[in-house]
Every structure is written in C-alpha cells, then in structure tokens.
Design goal:
One of its GO terms (molecular function) is thymidylate synthase activity. With 273 residues, the protein is α+β, with helices and mostly antiparallel strands. Helices cover 27% and strands 24% of the residues. It contains 7 helices and 10 strands. It has a 6-stranded mixed sheet. The protein has a two-stranded antiparallel sheet with strand order 3-4. A two-stranded antiparallel sheet has the order 9-10. Strand 3 and strand 4 form a beta hairpin. Bound molecules: 5-hydroxymethylene-6-hydrofolic acid. 5-hydroxymethylene-6-hydrofolic acid (THF) binds next to helix 6.
C-alpha cells in the first residue's frame, strides 16, 4: 500500500489550503491516480488498522439496492449514520442508482445486472459502466455520490504469463476523496467488488485503478496523517471468497475471510459531515 502513503504525502506536501462545504478546511490537490494489482494481495491499508467488516457490509448493502441504513444498523455499521434522516433514509444514493436507475418512461435500469451480462456476453465492450451520478436526482440525495462512475475492462488471458482466465480490471472516478478516512474504505470496497465480479464471470481480478478528483486531507486529520506517514507498510493480506457463489447478488458477509492482516494500530479521526 505504498501507493496510498505516496498519495497522502503528495497532498500533505503539495496541497493547497481550500475551504469546503463542511466548514472544516482541507489541504487539497485536483487529479491523482493509483493502480493496485489485485494479484499482489488485497489492498487493505496496513499503516493503520481498518475494519473490513464495515466495508463488506456497506458493499453488500449497495448491491441489495438499499438506501435505508437499517441493514447497516442491524450489522452494527455506523458509517452512514450522520447523513440519514429520522427514518434512516438517505434518498436515492448508490444502491438505488446501481440497481434501479429511473428512466424517463417510468422503468428502472439494473446497472449491476447489465454489467454482469455485458462482461459475460460482450467482454470487449468499452461501455461496461456503472454511474451513480444521476444528475436529475442529485438534489434528493443526502450526499451526492463521491465514488461516482466506474468502468470494467477485460483483457484476454496472457498464455506466456501462465494465465488461463480473462483478466478483469476496474477503474473508478471519485470526484471527492477524503484521504485519511474515506479513501482506505473506497480502495478496499472497489477491490472487493472487482474480485466478486471476476468470480461470478469466471475471470481473474487484475487491476483496480483509482482516479481522484478533489483529493483532500481535512485540516483535523493532518496530525493523524503525520503519524501515519512515519509508518512502514507491511505485506498485504489476502482475501478469500467462497468459490461456491456464482451470482453477484448472492454474496453474504460469511463468504469473505481476510487472512494475514497484521496492521499498525488504529488511528482515530473525526469524520466531516
Ligand atoms: N464524508 C466524509 N467526510 N468522508 C468520507 O470518507 C465519506 N464517505 C462516505 C460518505 N461521506 C463521507 C461515508 N464513509 C468513516 C469511514 C467511511 C465513511 C464514513 C466514516 C469512518 O469514520 N471511519 C472510521 C471508523 C470506521 C468504523 O466505524 O469501522 C475509521 O477510523 O476508519 C466515503 O465514501
């Protein structure tokens, strides 16, 4: 996870001071890209301890198409609490756009099902895309999507490298990136999604490419960042997925096992709302 620390150091050293919606203040750069080869291990930050539990449940919740935090609450995940209304609703955020993007004629599009269908039937397509950025519905969302748009890409197996399966990569465009708290979650979440999609399409997960728009360190995270930058990344853990699961909608929390994760201690920070 050297890539993550490089990002943090880059923004720490070269970011400009910039005000933001939350009133916290940030140090920010515009435009940055990281690449994680998923064959080298699972890209979970090792320079502080992270709870993969919250990340897995959040992704399962997105894939269910849910936008009420009750599933998260039942599973003791609190990362969306601050944005929900008194009934636990967030408006038509990620889950709603991924699974049931509304069309002008009153129908709904399941972008995840379409992506799986395209990967299986037309893997060379350059249109294998999921967008959470539904311009017409932004106003109804508790928070406009930060990880807004992602695309899958399939390369044929490279026989010289001993590959037998097609190689699946995913690139995400994230318009706004909270480097200390959010980005480690976002990397793990999309790496996991890429591995899940690869499994159900009988492909091998290759690269996750993370492209950032406004990449910022909140001013109340700078001290934590300084501490984290003194730490040396450890070897990456592995993530084992139950090989029996053949549909993207059938994964449950119990189907994932993290092995050999030996991070530095957790570093606490306040989330900006
Ligand atoms: N808003 C802000 N300011 N930052 C974000 O990263 C962010 N998100 C989601 C929506 N709005 C955001 C919410 N994701 C934590 C992590 C991710 C979140 C929100 C909060 C957090 O507090 N993490 C702590 C505790 C984790 C836990 O409870 O397990 C941590 O130490 O990692 C990014 O898309």
């Amino acid at each position: 996870m050297q890539q993550y620390l490089d990002l943090m150091r880059h923004v720490y050293e070269h970011g400009v001071d910039k005000q933001d919606r939350t009133g916290t203040g940030t140090r920010s750069v515009f435009g940055y890209q990281m690449r994680f080869n998923l064959q080298e291990g699972f890209p979970l930050v090792t320079t502080k301890k992270l709870h993969l539990r919250s990340i897995i449940h959040e992704l399962i919740w997105f894939l269910k198409g849910e936008t009420n935090i009750s599933y998260l609450k039942e599973n003791k995940v609190s990362i969306w609490d601050e944005w929900a209304d008194e009934n636990g609703n967030l408006g038509p955020v990620y889950g709603s756009q991924w699974r049931s993007w509304p069309t002008p004629d009153g129908k709904h599009i399941d972008q995840i099902a379409q992506v799986i269908h395209q990967l299986k039937n037309n893997p060379d397509s350059r249109r294998i895309i999921v967008s959470a950025w539904n311009v017409a519905e932004i106003e109804k969302m508790a928070l406009p999507p930060c990880h807004a748009f992602f695309q899958f890409y399939v390369a044929p197996p490279n026989k010289e490298k001993g590959q037998t399966k097609a190689q699946l990569s995913c690139q995400l465009y994230q318009r706004s990136a909270d480097i200390f708290l959010g980005v480690p979650f976002n990397i793990a979440s999309y790496a996991l999604l890429t591995m899940m999609v690869a499994q159900v399409c009988d492909m091998e997960a290759a690269d996750f490419i993370h492209t950032l728009g406004d990449a910022h360190l909140y001013s109340n995270h700078l001290e934590q960042a300084t501490l984290q930058l003194t730490r040396t990344p450890k070897s990456l853990p592995k993530l084992k997925i139950n090989p029996e699961i053949k549909s993207i909608f059938d994964f449950r929390y119990e189907d994932f096992t993290l092995v050999d994760y030996d991070p530095h201690p957790h570093i606490k920070a306040e989330v900006a709302v």
